[in-house]
Amino acid sequence: MNCPECSTQEVFGSNVFSDVTMRERLPKNAYKTFRLVQQGKAELDRATADVIANAMKDWAIEKGATHYCHWFQPMTGTTAEKHDSFISPTADGRVMMEFSGKELSQGEPDASSFPSGGLRATFEARGYTAWDCTSPVFIKKDGKNITLFIPCAFCSYTGDALDKKTPLLRSMDVLDKQAVRVLKALGTKSTSVIATLGPEQEYFLVDKKFVEKRLDLMLCGRTIFGAPSPRGQELEDHYFGSLNERVASFMFELNTELWKLGVSAKTQHNEVAPAQYELAPVFSTVNVATDHNQLTMETMQKVAIRHGMVCLLNEKPFAGVNGSGKHNNWSMVTNDGINLLEPGVTPHDNMVFLVFLCAVVRAVDKYAKLMRASVANAGNEHRLGANEAPPAIVSIFLGDQLTDIFEQLAAGGAKTSKKGGELKLGVSTLPPLPKDSTDRNRTSPFAFTGNKFEFRMVGSTQSTAGPTFVLNTIVADVLDEFASELEKASDITKATQKLVQRIAKDHMRIVFNGDNYTAEWAKEAEKRGLPNLKSTVESLECLGDKEYIELFKKHKVLSKNELHARTEILLDAYSMMINIEARTMVQMANRQILPACIDYAGNLASSVIAVEDAGIAADAQKAKLIEINDLIAAMDKGTRELEQIKDKAASTSNAVKKARAFHDEVKPAMATVRAAADKLETIVDALIWPMPTYAEMLFIK
Ligand code: ADP
Ligand code: MG
């Protein structure tokens, strides 16, 4: 790591078979063909594939690689890899290092154990991986093992998508097609549009020695017991605080590792909760950003271990302090470099901007339930609406300037744009600062932040693919409507004005610039008719609605079967996660917490006898003993009940009913056990308590 001479510039992308490397190493014609393939303008022929594969192999071997792997993103939400070596035996008993175009382009891992939601049965388990040439190939080093990684899509024998990447790629195509239609109707020269993404990743770091003593952290990635620390996040002194040295060293190494992989890790800081941090990359195309976010999560976990820490990515590792999200910053850019969500100086007369802004606003209002469903998982259920993260109600923050323009449009036409002006600090030595035309809003689930939208409901463990393909598809759907309207117009200016005025009038209800954490907003949102789907099950159930099946089918992003399979997988994942948490809870209660408390009750009982034997009243001991004994009884009863309730829930066969049982019955039963245990933690001898406390885990660094 200590390598002052190797500059960041040299490190960056050093393990990526990048465009520059490709240009250097490929014959001109092969490079040209590849670029056309990448842009979807040509198909990869076998001869060119062989040439590219060979160049990749030589490059990888120079870097010490012995294997290659098709790297894909199954529905588990993480990544999968199966390594094959380059060796090929020769007749004379030696080996050659080989890698063919076929091996690069396509793989057939058996991979039958990944969730498919019924899309394939295990007995007909063929699954195929196909090279996604829009995301660069790279080298990853795990211990001594060096492997060439090939980003891939993963599908079944029948061509059904079995992964996160395929629908994302499909949604990019639709967005491109529909956005270009609109741009053409508006008279611009752009010929393609691509969605961009910059996901900010939140995470916790906890000393490994604590994690090893907590079965819940080891198995569930979150604490399922734990009384609040006497000091939490109320002083707000951790947020943006100076970096602890151990954490700073971790970040340094993390950045270096990510830079090698071409991940442009840019911003890092302490987050709100103690022991919570954030990393933000420079944005890229949604596809590359999704791959890079997976690499970021994986690298965070690996590097943390090297520093004696564990990186917790779960949405809610600790009750009572903030959970972790992923802020998905999203926009669209044309091939000639125009950010379609860049308002410019006078947004009210920037028609292209207004049309695309209106498309997003209408899409989010029309498909709010889909947006909610796209961020639904067991961990995020603890976060959304818990007064620290956006609520489960989807709304849009537009800010003063754009809201004003929207109001003008709704009233018949926009004539002016409010200006930001200057910020004077009242100190003669400080220069006046140019002020943005709009302040920020940290509580909004979907906020306009200058030249992009920031989707803040996404969970920290989630692949960015899901929420992003949903956003791409719903915006594409509305752009399709817009294009059909504008293409018919005889006077495009008038038609566009009419369109944006109508959208502003129809969709004002989704715009909310106030504090999203308040109870008043929940009431107001209900009045406005905005959905408030608090639970994962409720939100996932909506995916069966005809409207949504038609939407994904129409744009060929997901077939009815694929959507159904995904819904089942997500529901199952929810049930399984809570089942694991419930089983862990029962074990920790029976084998750790109850025995410790029973020991302590025994000590107290002995003390009562000894003190009374000495002729002294033992009222305090007795009172404590009674309190503790009652809590032990309550906890024991709760644990026995939980065991039965979870077994019953787990035996339900229908996926929706099962997830409902876990939500409606198992979760409350867990809350009962936890309440008794957490109370016990605050009154039982610290020396007997069998696991590290919140204070230790959050404050010892
Ligand atoms: P903040 O915390 O103020 O929201 P950050 O700098 O932490 O800002 O994160 C902003 C993220 O938005 C970065 O990942 C940045 O690259 C990304 N971003 C900026 N412009 C765009 C864009 N046009 N499209 C997508 N993401 C963008
Ligand atoms: Mg942000």
Features of the shown structure:
single chain; 14% strand; alpha+beta; Four Helix Bundle (Hemerythrin (Met), subunit A); 701 residues; binds magnesium ion; binds adenosine-5'-diphosphate; 22 helices; Creatine Kinase, Chain A, domain 2; 19 strands; Ubiquitin-like (UB roll); nine-stranded mixed sheet
List the helices and strands and how they pair.
Layout: H1 8-11, H2 19-25, H3 28-38, H4 46-62, E1 67-72, E2 80-85, E3 87-89, E4 95-97, H5 101-105, E5 106-107, E6 127-131, E7 138-142, E8 145-156, H6 165-185, E9 193-207, H7 208-211, H8 215-220, H9 245-260, E10 265-270, E11 276-281, E12 284-285, H10 286-306, E13 309-312, E14 326-334, H11 351-366, H12 368-373, E15 396-397, H13 399-410, E16 422-423, E17 433-434, E18 446-448, E19 453-455, H14 465-487, H15 492-507, H16 519-528, H17 536-541, H18 546-554, H19 560-613, H20 619-650, H21 655-683, H22 694-699
Parallel strand pairs: 1-8, 15-18
Antiparallel strand pairs: 1-2, 3-4, 5-6, 6-8, 7-8, 9-11, 9-12, 9-13, 9-14, 10-11, 14-19, 16-17, 18-19
Bound molecules: adenosine-5'-diphosphate (ADP) and magnesium ion.
Adenosine-5'-diphosphate is lined by residues 196-198, 200, 267, 280-283, 329-331, 339, 449, 451-452, 454.
